[in-house]
Write a structure and sequence with these properties.
274 residues; mainly beta; 15 strands; seven-stranded antiparallel sheet; OB fold (Dihydrolipoamide Acetyltransferase, E2P); single chain; 23% strand
Amino acid sequence: MSVRKLKPITPGQRFRVVNGFDAITTDKPEKSLLAPKKRSGGRNSQGRMTMRYMGGGHKKRYRIVDFKRNKVGVPATVATIEYDPNRTAFIALVNYQDGEKRYVIAQNGLQVGQNIVSGAGVAPEIGNAMPLSDIPLGTIISCIELRPGQGAVMARSAGAFAQLMARDGKFATVKLPSGETRMILATCLATIGAVSNSDHQLIVSGKAGRKRWLGRRPRTRPVVMNPVDHPMGGGEGRASGGHPRSRNGIPAKGYRTRSKTKDSNKYIVERRKK
């Protein structure tokens, strides 16, 4: 994987850094795994705007990704590595030996022609999905379940990875990408390796229009709003805006909003860093 810095032949390309897409092997998605994707533009069922700064953007089709990896013990061959407009990570089309095709999140280093498999007792190799109880301690993992059979919910975005730290009884201790260390049931599945497209963080859009293509409208800074619109608005001239807070008055930058009575608190060994 690599990134390319473009020559500044236009103002929009002066600072632009694009993905090299070296890992991508095809630009034609598998038709049977596509689904329509409807856009809301931030409006609810009554047509009222309930989420700001959303709308427009290029038309997309959803790729049906297998997050559950529940085809146990059936080997699959990686056919292609593809771009997915709905996520930052790349996806891999895999052909199972029984003829079924599925998309999975591609791990860093996954190659076309490589065989992957999921289930207990499989080898801890890149792309294989297995229970936390079978993974060697210290292994880099991603696409982690929080409840058995639920499907991957953690460490799914580009370049994300977690590390299996310890096991005790029916729980495994995992250090997550946020820095949080928490206990997860050892029967939950995780995939070996870090998620692909780790260079995503180096990409620079270069111009505002590229944000519009992604469906994001211009965002107004709270400091320049009127007092009726935001707690940080108003004032004569360039007022600082006071303490940083949300539109609803909840303080930002360090204020903890997590409930002290939340059930999952008992599973958190160490909170994420501020």
